[in-house]
Each structure stands twice: as structure tokens, then as C-alpha cells.
Design goal:
It comes from Streptomyces lunalinharesii. The chain is an alpha/beta fold and 219 residues long. It contains 7 helices and 5 strands; from the N terminus they run βαβαβαβαβααα. It is 61% helix and 11% strand. The protein has a 5-stranded parallel β-sheet, sandwiched between helices.
Length: 219
């Protein structure tokens, strides 16, 4: 059963959180509310999130300060942040948002379809990374098992075939996602997808190296 991704919604106004939930409910993921920067940081201590939608203007700790704390933590520094703001901001204000670590900056009122599409991209990337970690864990188990049970050739071959098939499925999905991102021209998402593809390539090479006869000189 595929685990749902968690999306963190941070806004001090309940009506804004309700609106975000209505827009993103169609993605069928787990939506987590936070009504302040402090509450968001607390949620990030225990849960992993695919993306954070962060309101800029909040009493106490504002969005910029919250983002700075998120980016300073090793556990959370790579989570994409989309800033939401009702301010009629200029270039300096936008630059401050990107400097704080945001991957996108959207002004209210925003197009619900556009916001949902952007969030969907980062959810897809998160799910692919989760699949990649699972394949890497299986590969490590296979490597350890191969060292301990060198004689179990048939069992090892079966496990390698299963790993290869699972990895192929992730590779196919990642390729389709990259094509989709090429069309959207979202630079941050494209860079994340390229990083994912590099990880997949490394995992495929490691898996190929385990195949019988790999690295054996031809006679």
C-alpha cells in the first residue's frame, strides 16, 4: 500500500487554511495544519513532509523567519517551501523570499489550479525519492546477504531480478515526470528531478555490478 505524502499548511488565519485544504484535497494526500511558525517547526520535528505552504505575514514568527529555521535544520533543509503572500510586493520582497529558501513565491489571491499543479509536482518528486530509498535499502540487504551467503546463487539471482524490476518501474516514472517538468519549466522542480535521476543512475550501476559475470574479464 502506497504511503500518502504529508503537506504542511502554515497560516495564522483559519479561513485561509480551510481554503488551502479545499484546493489540495483533490491530491488525496495528508494535509497537516499549523497556525504559526512555532507550530510548524514543532510538526517538522516528528513528521516528514513533501512540501510546505508557508504564509509570509504571521504575528510573532513570520514566514521568512520560519523558513530560516527550517533551512538551518539538517532534517528539514531540503523540504521545498512555497511562500504565500497577500502583500503587493516588489522585487526586493520577492528576492527576500527566495533568499530565505523558497522554491516558489505566490501572491494571493492565487489560481487554485496553478497552486494544486505546483504542489502536485513536489509530491510526485517526494514519492519518487521515497521509492528510491526503498530500492537502495533492498540493494544494501542484497549486498549484505550476498557476502554472507555466496553459495545461494539461485536465491540471489531471484532477488536481483526483483530489485531490477522494481528499479525499472521507478526509472520509468521518473522519466515521465522529467518530461512533464520540461514542459512546465519550473527551474527548482527540474533541478530536483535531475538530482533524482542521478541517484537512480548510481543505483542502477550498483545493481548491474551485482549481476552474475559482471566485471569478469572475457576469456
Amino acid at each position: 500500500m502506497v504511503q500518502k505524502a504529508k503537506i504542511l499548511l502554515v497560516d495564522d488565519r483559519p479561513e485561509n487554511l480551510l481554503a488551502l485544504e479545499a484546493i489540495l484535497s483533490a491530491l488525496d494526500q495528508t494535509l497537516v495544519r499549523a497556525s504559526s511558525g512555532e507550530e510548524a517547526l514543532k510538526a517538522l520535528l516528528t513528521d516528514d513532509f513533501a512540501v510546505i505552504l508557508l504564509d509570509v505575514q504571521m504575528p510573532g514568527m513570520d514566514g521568512f523567519e520560519t523558513a530560516a529555521h527550517i533551512k538551518r535544520r539538517e532534517r528539514t533543509r531540503d523540504i521545498p517551501i512555497i511562500f504565500l503572500t497577500a502583500i503587493n510586493h516588489g522585487p526586493h520582497h520577492t528576492f527576500r523570499g527566495y533568499a530565505a529558501g523558497a522554491v516558489d513565491y505566490i501572491s494571493k489571491p492565487f489560481d487554485p489550479w496553478v497552486l494544486r499543479a505546483k504542489v502536485s509536482v513536489f509530491v510526485d518528486l517526494y514519492m519518487k525519492n521515497c521509492q528510491l530509498r526503498e530500492q537502495a535499502a533492498l540493494l544494501r540487504l542484497q549486498l549484505d546477504g550476498g557476502r554472507q551467503n555466496v553459495g545461494e546463487t539461485k536465491e540471489s539471482a531471484g532477488l536481483l531480478a526483483e530489485l531490477s524490476a522494481r528499479l525499472a518501474a521507478v526509472e520509468e516514472q521518473a522519466e515521465a515526470l522529467s518530461k512533464q517538468l520540461d514542459e512546465s519549466a519550473d527551474a527548482a522542480a527540474v533541478a530536483t528531478a535531475a538530482h533524482l535521476e542521478r541517484k537512480l543512475t548510481g543505483l542502477r550501476r550498483a545493481l548491474d555490478a551485482l549481476e552474475p559475470g559482471a566485471g569478469t574479464p572475457a576469456s
